[in-house]
Amino acid sequence: MSHRILVTGGAGYLGSTLVPDLLAEGHKVTVLDNFMFRQASLNHCCHHPNFSVVKGDIRNESTVAPLLRDADVVIPLAALVGAPLCSLDPVGATSTNRDAISLMMRLLSKEQIVLMPTTNSAYGTGDENHHCTEESPLRPISQYAIEKVAVEKELMQHPNAISFRLATVFGMSPRMRIDLLVNDFSYRAVHDRFVVLFESHFKRNYVHVRDVSRAFRHALRNFDTMKANIYNVGLSDANVSKRELCEHIQRQVPDFVFVEAPVGKDPDQRNYIVSNAKIEATGFKPEFGLDRGIAELIKGFTMLRNSVYGNV
User: Fold this and answer.
1) DSSP state letters, 168-196
2) What is the spatial distance between Cα 236 and Cα 307, in angstroms, rounded to a whole number?
3) Which of 72, 198, 288, 302 is 20 to 30 Å from the Cα of 296, by its Cα?
């Protein structure tokens, strides 16, 4: 079944992977993005007759309202993502991550479908054994996580909504992010050959960006049985610590060195083992494992270097 889909922030890390996948499945896709990073990550979609793009701000009702009216499905990806970026611009983070979503929810009809990514960083440290399911208490610490929790509560009052609590995403994408943990450590392994770890025993869950796209498309195909629910989305065999992640990378980059030192603190204080059994029970299984993703990143970073201010 073909849908008219609005993807806000569709030129970002997730969107630039998801949008071409949606087009390939026969959907009509409109992207709303402010292109704040001057990214050209959807160039390869412009040839497609079912692709439309609008440059604008999701906080502007006059921009968002007509686009929402034309959509069967809304996938709100536009956000200032992560604790560091939100700390840099807390006012912009609140107006984009929370206020703009509240505006969108007020403008939607009850019949429209909303598929929204939130975050499993809201679990904090989980229970006494650091285990988390969708029923676990939420203990968000960073502004990003706190506002995602607030948005999720509002989202789940909509009768046709699904919330995906995403694990830490990794993998190559047309709009690349090097700051995500697996991506960051893999980049350092390729270009620096070393990394200094803090809180190296802290565990978190991971998921490939292409599996995030697959989860959204799986939900569209199985919406009647999945709607009005929250799902963790991650790799069940990849609840690993920072040190264990480095060991995975070292198997593929043997001269990669990692040392531990008390030099920092995770702004989200994430340390948990996440269950993804609920979404797996719907028939969804990730295809891209951690080691496969690391191999992909090594190839990608062989071609890509963040050298804006470098001489070599």
Assistant:
1) EEES--SS--S-SHHHHHHHHHHHTSEEE
2) 35
3) 198
pLDDT, tens digit (0-9, with 9 covering 90-100), for 267-299: 666 788 999 999 999 999 999 999 999 999 999
Count of beta carbons in the 10 Å neighbourhood of residue 199: 17
State the amino acid at position 81 in one-letter form: V
Q: Is 309 exposed, middle or buried (0-12, 13-18, 19+ CB in 10 A)?
A: exposed
Exposed / middle / buried, residue 2 (Cβ in 10 Å: 0-12, 13-18, 19+): exposed
Around Cβ 30, how many Cβ atoms within 10 Å?
Answer: 19
The pLDDT assigned to 309 comes to 58
Rounding to the nearest 10 degrees, give the CA dihedral for residues 195, 200, 206, 210.
0
pTM over cut 0.85: yes
**Domain 4-171+206-235+275-287: top CATH class:** alpha beta
Domain boundaries, the chain: 4-171+206-235+275-287
Give the helix/strand (H/E) hosting 63: helix 61-69
